[in-house]
Design a protein that fits this description.
With about 600 residues, the protein is mainly β. The strands form nine sheets. Strands 27-28-29-31-30-32-33-34-35-36 form a ten-stranded mixed β-sheet. Strands 1, 6, 9, 10, 12 and 14 form a six-stranded mixed β-sheet that branches. Strands 5-11-7-8 form a four-stranded antiparallel β-sheet, with no helix packed on it. The chain is globular. The protein starts with 5 loop residues before the first helix and ends in a 13-residue tail after the last strand.
Length: about 600
């Protein structure tokens, strides 16, 4: 297998003057899984370690305008975390271009970025085309799609190559992915719903039903099939095909032990191909559904809690006293500067790096007048942006890594490079793993906010999503001065659940017993303030429903959870069906109520 570094790659592209090579790279995923390039700087070097579509075990889509008609070789780039973990399927305009990712790669240190070539060329006209990447391998993270008619260009690099609009001299063209086609509700939708509420009263002996009523422009679909698979926390798997004849269809199952069962379904033509429809103004899209239902969720198993859990954290928290609370606040240009002050903040902290983040407050804030919110960020390596100013509040958002603020992109590219895959294979020693210093920064951030003269001395909220939700739960468990915890799709709940037979996350950390000290399910037992899990996805397999349910039922404090049907790790679409459950004593503190 031929391997090429950055400069040989670009040189090869330049030799064939008539060749055309297009790179489409993701910097983020939107709420509906669209593959989005968001940097507006044409000279930006794409391919840095923190720019990738972070959705896993699901479908990622987008549309892009190809400038020139041609017959192209296709390559997918993936950030891989191990062998047999790179499986991807690519479709363009509904046509299957091939499955990639199982080729043997030797001499590679994971995590790394790997190019995989689709087996067949594809002929494309000039204009807008819709692409879709389906990931099926554990820990798969698609990062880029490359099309080339340069037969001499071979991409087999195992390190991440760099492309830019400047140094490629126009021979490799960076294209910006547009938003993916999304079904407007009422135009084309599944109308999918559980047969009845799947929580609270469901037991393993009860039938769990999923009801589908696929429609298009208000009319039920006929002459097509519903293809589905079922997989559960009890280890059972099954599937089937149901012909749609213009009436609702029910798929039923049961669970043999407490947990959740996942149903994945899609509408197909009689020949087995996906049924595609044209969404006005958006392009082609397919009917798909992914969601779970639970039974006896209060009995979901969890690993044994460490006997010295509290003693361990007492020792770790004592380290904060060894480093005095010293900080620097530098006012910077923020949003709505006439009304709000924005500061770049650095706070001394035990561990390798300080707490860093942006603090925003009203310009005319009086002493002891404001409630405070500390927000924590999700998993990843990316520059921190200045937050939107909140009304009548101290708002402090920290990054997870303690990196300096207000630097150039080149600085962050180098800073992030050794941190790729942080915390995912690092939990053998709970005293030195990556999460340890992260927890200390979380707690020091709370100390800093409480030291600000504008804080009212009473109200302190922690918030965040995914990894940010995990950090928020740590904060509420380890500092009883937190008065409200508001999280979405919290990560790190029941981390060792897969060792007990529960469905594993399709992306997440490798389990070590030492990670039990960081498990949000155990921290939940120690939280005294109200906890609001305002978004939990029943189709989320980065933070599986079984883990979030286990964490939620470990809470003894006032609590609320909202489960969204057919929703993954992103935000639910407007109007998505959901179920809300809350304890009788739950209420949002007045200081944090929003309209």
């Amino acid at each position: 297998m031929k391997k090429m570094g950055v400069f040989p790659l670009l040189t090869c592209a330049a030799l064939t003057l008539s060749a055309h090579t297009y790179l489409i790279e993701a910097e983020r995923l939107g709420a509906n899984g669209e593959f989005a390039f968001v940097n507006e700087n044409p000279a930006h070097e794409s391919g840095s370690t923190h720019l990738y579509g972070r959705e896993v075990g699901t479908r990622i889509s987008g549309k892009v305008e190809i400038p020139r008609a041609g017959k192209y070789d296709l390559y997918l780039r993936n950030q891989s975390y191990g062998d047999n973990a790179r499986r991807m399927r690519l479709r363009i305009d509904g046509k299957l271009c091939g499955e990639v990712g199982d080729e043997e790669v030797s001499g590679v240190r994971y995590p790394c970025f790997v190019w995989s070539k689709c087996p067949e060329k594809i002929e494309l006209s000039a204009g807008v085309h819709f692409f879709e990447i389906e990931t099926s391998g554990m820990n798969t993270r698609p990062d880029a799609l490359l099309l080339t008619d340069d037969r001499d260009l071979i991409l087999t690099v195992n390190e991440m190559p760099r492309f830019s609009a400047e140094n490629a001299d126009g021979k490799i063209t960076l294209l910006k992915s547009q938003n993916a086609p999304v079904f407007p509700r009422g135009v084309a939708k599944f109308n999918a719903a559980m047969k009845d509420k799947p929580f609270d009263t469901k037991h393993c002996s009860d039938t769990i039903g999923f009801v589908f009523d696929p429609t298009l422009d208000g009319s039920r679909l006929t002459g097509v099939d519903l293809r589905y698979t079922l997989s559960g926390d009890d280890g059972k798997q099954s599937g089937g095909v149901v012909h749609l004849e213009g009436k609702p269809v029910t798929v039923e199952t049961t669970l043999d032990k407490p947990g959740f069962v996942c149903l994945s379904a899609e509408v197909c033509n009689p020949d087995g191909s996906l049924y595609w429809v044209e969404v006005p103004g958006a392009g082609p899209a397919a009917y798909r559904f992914l969601s779970c239902a639970g039974a006896d969720e209060k009995k979901i198993p969890q690993c044994e809690e460490p006997r010295d859990f509290d003693a361990f954290w007492d020792r770790e928290k004592s380290r904060l006293k060894e480093v005095p609370l010293k900080y620097e606040m530098k006012e910077v240009a923020g949003k709505e500067p006439e009304k709000y002050k924005t500061f770049a903040v650095s706070v001394d902290c035990p561990g390798p790096r300080p707490v860093t983040g942006y603090l925003v407050m009203p310009r005319d804030a009086a002493a002891k007048s404001l409630p405070a919110t500390v927000k924590f960020q999700g998993y990843g390596l990316y520059m921190q942006e200045k937050p939107e100013p909140p009304e009548n509040m101290l708002f402090f958002e920290i990054n997870a890594h303690g990196f300096p603020l207000e630097k150039e992109m080149d600085f962050y590219t180098e800073f992030f490079r050794p941190l790729t895959g942080y915390a995912l294979n690092d939990g053998a020693d709970p005293r030195t793993c990556y999460f340890n210093a992260m927890v200390l920064r979380v707690l020091r951030a709370l100390e800093f906010v409480r030291a600000l003269p504008e804080w009212n001395g009473r109200d302190l909220m922690t918030t965040g999503g995914s990894q940010g939700g995990l950090q928020s739960l740590w904060a509420a468990a380890l500092d009883d001065r937190v008065t409200f915890c508001r999280v979405r799709v919290p990560w790190g709940c029941n981390i060792g659940g897969s060792t007990l037979g529960l469905m594993p996350p399709r992306w997440g950390m490798r389990y070590f017993p030492g990670l039990n000290y960081y498990d949000a399910a155990f921290h939940a037992k120690r939280i005294h303030c109200p906890v609001d899990v305002y978004d939990a996805g029943l189709g989320d397999f980065t933070c599986p429903p079984s883990g979030i349910a286990r964490m939620y039922h470990n809470l003894a404090s006032p609590r609320r959870i909202v489960w969204y049907i057919d929703t993954g790790h992103g935000f639910p679409a407007d109007g998505t069906e959901n179920w809300e459950f809350k304890s009788a004593d739950f209420a949002v503190p007045a200081a944090f109520e929003t309209e």
